[in-house]
Design a protein that fits this description.
Helix content is 14%, strand content 32%. It is of the alpha+beta class. A 6-stranded mixed beta sheet has the order 1-2-3-4-5-6. β3 and β4 form a beta hairpin. The protein is globular, with a radius of gyration of 12 Å.
Length: 103
């Protein structure tokens, strides 16, 4: 599940290249949509509150969190991983997310 290349930005996290875009989709907030830069694998979406500044540091923190704690496999096809930021004003150094919607 990919995303259109036009309008995306690239980011390198721990040696892997990813493409990402911020999508203002309404509720439940803003979506950070990320895919691997070279593989057509699983997509990851992290929802943050409206008004949060989505900077590269926050995107890289979301990628690391998804990889390390939520089983994201960006190089393999699979169902989209959807996460929600727990904090109203997330900090790139201390990003806390949970699977969305809650199970």
């Amino acid at each position: 599940m990919g995303i259109a290349k036009q309008g995306t930005r690239t980011i390198v996290v721990d040696g892997d290249r990813y493409r990402w875009v911020a999508a203002p989709n309404g509720e439940p907030g803003l979506a950070i949509v990320v895919v691997h830069g070279e593989a057509d694998g699983q997509r990851m979406v992290t929802w943050v509150e409206h008004g949060v500044v989505i900077a590269p540091g926050l995107v890289s923190a979301a990628i690391r969190e998804a990889l390390l704690h939520h089983g994201w496999t960006p190089r393999q096809r699979g169902k989209q991983l959807t996460l929600r930021c727990v904090d109203l004003n997330p900090d790139a150094a201390n990003l806390r997310v949970t699977v969305w919607p809650p199970r």
